Amino acid sequence: MHIELSPDKRYYSIGEVAKAFNVNASLIRFWDKEFDILKPKKNAKGNRLFTPEDVKNLQLIYHLVKERGFTLEGAKTHLKEGQKKTLDKFEIISKLEAIKKQLTDLKNGL
Q1: Does the reported pTM lie above 0.85?
Q2: What angle do CA 62, 42, 18 make, to 5 degrees?
Q3: Per-residue pLDDT tens for 35-60?
């Protein structure tokens, strides 16, 4: 799961985030309540506005829960025990997947 973050965009709505992950907004709200590393801002109406850092953390949560099959408690423990190490590995994997996609696109274009 690789989400393209716009370098000039400071906040993402919950709808944008849910669509990017192909999940319901209710799941994003649930994860927001469950995981302390998520700290979206809220506007005057109370709508969540996710920063690029929040989106990266959501990618990590998605990876642990949906792709690796962690329970919520397991994911929370994993994040607390090795957050930096896990995030570094995840970012490396994400970058490699993006490179693989670019190379595949180039190959298909030949």
Answers
A1: no
A2: 30
A3: 999 999 999 999 999 999 999 899 98
